[in-house]
């Protein structure tokens, strides 16, 4: 590909509900731009962006699909457009976050059949939180039950006055054969090759089209004092002037245009890419920032400036290893350049550079500010890193923090073979580097994988087997119950063995008492008179700790106890560290058996963001799970945040049940909080 100017670079993230038509639209855009000879089909597993076996098998996007194209626009300029096709399934929201960190514009895709869905709300909110401008495209207008006007009304009711329709379809379903341009009041019909030609606006659409033209014109000029003054004086702005002002409003988030297209028939697709080039902010129009300590520093996309790259996503390629996707924030990079990772301080050499088009690698020699490209084998550069030229101010900068999405669904993993066990940790580390929403923990002697849902983990484990050759079985994560002593008690631990030669002899007198929740363990030495030589006291403490870890009468680790050793006996020949460790452990076990224990269960702090209409159902469900509501906070946009504490045992599948309860519109955060006594009837056997 020839080098382009940063002002002609565009990066567009396609967001929306699963099944809204993002991948089909991506295929249509690539085909219409001449980037691919024919459009693939999701049903056939032949699309560019959904190329992984797991995606083909399920027929949905699971990762971040990248597809560059070139477009010769009506203004005579050639634009370099990178499409970032994101999953619509909530389990894979990490790919959406990565795409938005690199995008200039979010194209929110809404189905003309299904309308505004839970995924539409989530995409809208994600783009708003990331500060990325939005454009809406209504797709599937050619399908049965498609209704553009119904969807437009939903968009206005849901998202308010920022919605600005720029196109109207000539008709719905099979009658969708063209579009009316609201700004120019011109009609565009389509032939079978997906190219438009001038066509009269249908008579039944003329009045609505003219009314919308007046409304949209007034809305646009209202944001420009000079244009508004001329407009009120009778000087109607040209279509070009209105377009430039609208582009400024889009960049500022003051307007969200609505377009219409069919990825299947190609109607409206060329108009869509034309308008994306015109409305998407150029890199210099949106100030990107990095951090210098606690201060945000703007970065100008100057191709002649010092090189600064943002590595926003990594993937594991079975042939070339780790592939790092990056956006050039400043400067121009070439194959062979050496840059410094500003976080790890690792110096990285950039081998061959390429653009990704699905699984295809398109070699490039130069990447300029604003462009998205990829490089292999940067093992010291995790996602979220900056790479800067040595000796430039960029080496002291760091990337803005990535949005944290704590895992809300977990499985315990058991390697199938010893070979799998040997390679499991390294393979999971690479999976987690590829997808930061996956986390790996050790719970006791078990390996636990956490993610955003059951499908998220199922896909991760399939990739674990396919890409890394590591096979595991899964089971629910054991709840981390604990025990504490029920009341203060005194106990004796004794070891007395004689079998010829040196024997084993130790006696310890202990007082064991409960401590406040969360205190942990307190060991007190009250021995006087040398009843136990001081050299053996560390062995006593170690024996107590080992007995606590081994578990109480119910088999769970013991916590929140105070153990005081106040007396004992030793033997000049037969006493040893091992004897006192054993005696101390026996004394603690006797104390627990005598006083009894209380089983403690972990309690989590949950925060749930839901539509106000679902608040009652969610709160009732939490109460049924032994939850305690601690706070509710109303948000703008008809949502409420519910905070509660809930026993961990009640949350194993909660994220799945919550999505079912709220139609997929809930946001969930689960964090450990404290331990509390478990009711007797729920105490595990």
TrEMBL record:
Domain of life (superkingdom): Bacteria
SUPFAM superfamilies noted in UniProt: EF-G C-terminal domain-like, P-loop containing nucleoside triphosphate hydrolases, Ribosomal protein S5 domain 2-like, Translation proteins
Residue stretches making up the Tr-type G domain: 7-284
Keyword Nucleus: no
The protein's name: Elongation factor G
Molecular function per GO: translation elongation factor activity
Entry-linked PROSITE patterns: G_TR_2 (PS51722)
Keyword set, alphabetical order: Elongation factor, GTP-binding, Nucleotide-binding, Protein biosynthesis
Keyword Protein biosynthesis annotated: yes
């Amino acid at each position: 590909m020839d080098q382009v100017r940063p002002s002609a670079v565009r990066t567009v993230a396609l967001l929306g509900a699963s099944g809204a038509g993002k991948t089909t639209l991506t295929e249509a855009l690539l085909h219409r731009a001449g980037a691919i000879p024919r459009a693939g089909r999701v049903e056939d597993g032949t699309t560019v962006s959904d190329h992984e076996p797991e995606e083909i098998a399920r027929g949905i996007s699971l990762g971040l699909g990248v597809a560059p194209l070139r477009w010769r626009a009506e203004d005579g300029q050639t634009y370099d457009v990178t499409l970032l096709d994101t999953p619509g399934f909530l389990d894979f929201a990490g790919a959406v976050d990565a795409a938005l960190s690199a995008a200039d514009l979010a194209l929110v895709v809404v189905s003309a059949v299904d309308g505004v869905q839970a995924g539409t709300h989530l995409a809208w909110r994600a783009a708003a939180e990331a500060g990325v401008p939005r454009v809406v495209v209504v797709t599937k207008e050619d399908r049965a039950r498609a209704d553009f006007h119904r969807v437009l009304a939903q968009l206005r009711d849901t998202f308010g006055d920022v919605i600005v329709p720029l196109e109207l379809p000539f008709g719905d379903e099979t009658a969708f054969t063209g579009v009316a341009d609201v700004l120019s009041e011109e009609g565009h019909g389509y032939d079978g090759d997906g190219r438009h030609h001038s066509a009269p606006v249908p008579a039944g659409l003329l009045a609505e089209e003219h009314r919308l033209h007046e409304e949209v014109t007034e809305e646009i000029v209202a944001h420009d004092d000079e244009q508004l003054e001329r407009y009120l004086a009778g000087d109607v702005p040209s279509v070009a002037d209105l377009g430039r002002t609208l582009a400024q409003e889009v960049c500022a988030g003051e307007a969200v245009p609505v377009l219409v297209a069919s990825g299947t028939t190609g109607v409206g697709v060329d108009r869509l890419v034309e308008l994306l080039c015109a409305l998407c902010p150029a890199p210099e129009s949106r100030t990107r920032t990095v951090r210098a300590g606690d201060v945000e520093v703007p970065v100008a996309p100057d191709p002649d400036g010092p090189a600064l790259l943002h590595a926003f996503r990594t993937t594991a390629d079975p042939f070339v290893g780790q592939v790092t996707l990056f956006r050039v924030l400043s400067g121009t990079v070439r194959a062979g350049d050496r840059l410094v990772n500003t976080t790890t301080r690792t110096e990285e050499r950039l081998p061959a550079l390429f653009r990704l088009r699905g699984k295809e690698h398109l070699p490039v020699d130069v990447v300029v500010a604003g462009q998205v490209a990829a490089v292999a084998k940067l093992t010291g550069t995790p996602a979220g890193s900056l790479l800067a030229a040595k000796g430039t101010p960029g080496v002291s900068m760091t990337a803005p923090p990535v949005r944290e999405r704590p895992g809300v669904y977990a499985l315990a993993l058991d390697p199938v073979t010893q070979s799998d066990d040997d390679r499991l940790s390294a393979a999971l580390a690479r999976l987690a580097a590829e997808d930061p929403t996956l986390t790996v923990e050790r719970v006791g002697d078990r390996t636990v994988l956490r993610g955003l849902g059951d499908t998220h983990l199922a896909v991760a484990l399939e990739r674990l087997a396919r890409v890394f050759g590591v096979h595991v079985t899964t089971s629910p994560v054991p709840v981390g119950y604990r025990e504490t002593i029920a009341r203060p008690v005194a106990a004796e631990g004794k070891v007395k063995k004689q079998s010829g030669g040196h024997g084993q002899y130790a006696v310890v007198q202990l007082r064991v008492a409960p401590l406040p929740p969360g205190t942990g363990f307190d060991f007190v030495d009250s021995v006087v008179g040398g009843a136990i030589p001081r050299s053996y006291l560390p062995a006593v403490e170690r024996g107590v700790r080992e007995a606590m870890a081994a578990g109480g009468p119910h088999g769970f680790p013991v916590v929140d106890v105070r153990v005081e050793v106040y007396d004992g006996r030793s033997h000049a020949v037969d006493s040893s560290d091992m004897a006192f460790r054993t005696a101390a452990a026996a004394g603690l076990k006797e104390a627990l058996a005598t006083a009894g224990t209380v089983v403690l269960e972990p309690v989590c702090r949950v925060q749930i963001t839901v539509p106000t209409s679902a608040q009652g159902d969610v709160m009732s469900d939490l109460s049924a799970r032994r939850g305690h509501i601690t706070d509710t906070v109303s948000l703008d946009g008809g949502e409420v945040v519910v905070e509660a504490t809930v026993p961990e045992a009640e949350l194993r599948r909660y994220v799945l049940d919550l999505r079912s309860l709220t139609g997929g519109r809930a946001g969930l955060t689960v964090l450990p909080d404290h331990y509390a006594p478990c009711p007797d009837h729920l105490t595990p056997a």
